[in-house]
Amino acid sequence: MNAFLTKQEFHYVLTEDMDILAVDDDPIQREFCSVYLSTPSVRVETADCAEAGLAILGEKRFAAALVDVDMPGMSGIEMVRVLRADRRFDDLPIMVITGREDMVSIDQAYAAGATAFMCKPVNWRLLAHQIRFMVRAHRALVERGRAE
Questions:
Q1: What's the order of all strands across the beta sheet hosting 42-47?
Q2: Is the pTM of this model over 0.90?
C-alpha cells in the first residue's frame, strides 16, 4: 500500500507570522475561526459585530480581515465600504464569508471592496489556503501600486 495513503503528516498551512481579525455575530463561527486558523505563528482575534471590528482595526494592524455579511447593526458589506473609504486600510485584504451564495451578494461584496469571497459552511483547510494566497496577492498588488 502507498505510504501516503497509510500515513498522512499534518502541517500548518498558515506558517507566516500574522494576525487575523474575524468578524461574525455567530459565537460558534468565531470559535471555529480561532481554533482552526490559529497556529504557532498566527493569532486570530474576533469581534461579534462590524462596529466592534472597526474599533479593533482602529487600534491594531492585521494581515487580513474575515467579515460576515449578515450581522445586527452595520452589515459586513457596509463594514467593507467603510474600510475601503479609509486609506489606512488600503493594505488590508478582506474576505467576505457568508451563507449567501447568490450573484447579487457576491457582486455587492466585490463592489464594496472585498478582496475575496467564501460561502458557508466553511471548509477550514481550504480557507487557510485561501487566506495565505489572498494575503500574498494583496501585498503584491499594494507593492505594485507603490512602485508605479
A1: 42-47, 18-23, 64-67, 94-98, 116-119
A2: no
